[in-house]
Design brief:
Number of helices: 5
Order of helices and strands: HHHHEEEEEHEEEEEEEEEEEEE
Oligomer: single chain
Number of strands: 18
Number of domains: 2
Largest sheet: 16 strands, antiparallel, barrel
Strand order of the largest sheet: 1-2-3-4-5-6-7-10-11-12-13-14-15-16-17-18
CATH class of the largest domain: Mainly Beta
Strand content: over 45%
Length: 413
């Protein structure tokens, strides 16, 4: 007999017994006792019938359902989605103002117990031509070795400095733009593909955090101008292959001597090779050799009540070509630093922020000094509206010399 049919029979019997025509008349105590005893006997019979009628397959289904319910109550696997998005308006000194959809970046976490977690961030942007650009910001498998160490493998945000790995999401960054030199083709590395050990440990009362990694090397772009080759930029953006087979080793050590203050020191070293030439014949690169590639950095952050002061310095140096190559035979250095202060008014959602940045590159047209001042309104801790103005000082006529007004609404979820 089917379980559902038996269940329906039980309900029908109970309802029928409870609302019989005899029940419409006012019963005596003796009649109520007899009726109750009769209902109890019927229920016992139906229970026994149900027990005998359930097949082994039906029992297994019930057991599986119970086990599944227990799994959801105490799951081994946790699935979580986070991320951020921003929209805004930009008006540069020499261009017409435009509304924009900056970034939609969903972040996925899949964790199995306290053993392993997969995390990934996708990045969707709408370009000036209206086309949607899709990028994999990072994707790693994290193995929790112990309480002090995690092995991270895959594409990860560069641990050199603080801005790229911790501050670049729009709902965390207190200004609508990144400091000059901390974006693509700047002085600071963006991401790496390889393996990384990271974690933290105490030294007495002092807390520390660390990251040590090995990854594929960056790629160099050369430019042919006035009959000479020179380095145009360093693309340190987590390439999935290593053209010269040379790796980069680096890391960061953060020291927290007391609550609210952190000091970080970063370094990376390896090899890099010129892989492309802008507006030139790439066959010239056939004799190019690997060059020295070195990065150093320092950062600090200080929180005191409603005031936050932070700063960061990064220098990337590429050595000269020591082989027989002719492309971009000279070395080059990219250097940038910024200091930023922010104050949130007590008992208020308003916040003031100011940032000064000095970016120096091998090309005068890219050099930039910038003052950025802004006012933020925090609707919630993860929903922020920003108004800012950038005073940019660069080579006359270049993009680096254009002042900008920016408005942005950013939401972290």
């Amino acid at each position: 007999m089917n379980i559902n049919r038996v269940a329906k029979t039980i309900v029908f019997a109970v309802v029928t017994s409870s609302f019989s025509t005899a029940a419409l008349a006012e019963p005596s105590v003796e009649e109520l006792a007899e009726r109750l005893e009769r209902m109890q006997q019927e229920m016992d019979q139906l229970k026994q019938q149900l027990k005998n009628s359930a097949t082994k397959d039906e029992v297994q289904v019930i057991k599986k359902d119970v086990a599944t319910a227990g799994e959801w109550l105490q799951p081994d696997t946790l699935i979580h989605m986070a991320g951020y998005a921003d929209v805004g308006y930009t008006d540069s000194e020499s261009e017409d103002g435009s509304f924009n959809v900056g970034t939609f970046a969903p972040i996925f976490h899949f964790q199995y117990r306290d053993l392993v977690m997969l995390e990934s961030e996708l990045e969707f942007e709408v370009g000036d031509d209206g086309e949607t650009e899709t990028n994999l910001e990072y994707l790693t498998i994290d193995w929790f070795i112990n309480d002090y160490m995690v092995l991270v493998g895959g594409k990860f945000l560069s641990p050199v400095g603080q801005f790229r790995q911790n501050l670049h999401p729009s709902w965390i960054n207190k200004l609508p733009s990144a400091p000059p030199g901390f974006g693509h083709d700047g002085a600071a590395p963006v991401s790496d593909v390889g393996f990384q050990l990271r974690g933290g440990f105490p030294i007495g009362a002092i807390r520390t955090n660390y990251a040590v990694y090995i990854s594929n090397g960056p790629e160099l772009i050369a430019e042919f101008e006035d009959g000479e080759f020179e380095l145009d930029g360093v693309e340190a953006e987590g390439f999935g292959s290593d053209g010269d087979g040379e790796k980069v080793v680096g890391g960061r050590l953060g020291i927290i001597p007391f609550s609210g203050f952190e000091l970080g020191l970063s370094a990376a070293s390896g090899k890099a090779t010129v892989t492309s030439i802008e507006d030139g014949d790439s066959s010239t690169l056939s004799d190019e050799g690997a060059r020295d590639y070195d990065v150093i950095g320092a950062d600090f952050s200080w929180h005191y009540k409603a005031f936050n002061l932070r700063g960061e310095y990064v220098e990337t140096e590429v050595g000269a070509d020591t082989g027989s190559g002719t492309a971009a035979s000279e070395g080059a250095t990219w250097e940038t630093w910024y200091t930023q202060g922010a104050y949130r008014f007590n008992q208020s959602n308003w916040e003031l922020v100011a940032r000064y940045t000095d970016f120096d590159s091998p090309h005068n047209s890219q050099d930039q000094q910038q003052w950025a001042i802004g006012t933020n309104y925090l609707f919630t801790n993860n929903f922020i509206g920003k108004l800012s103005y950038e005073f940019n000082d660069g080579q006359a006529g270049s993009d680096a010399d254009q002042d900008r007004f920016l408005f942005q609404m950013a939401y972290g979820f």
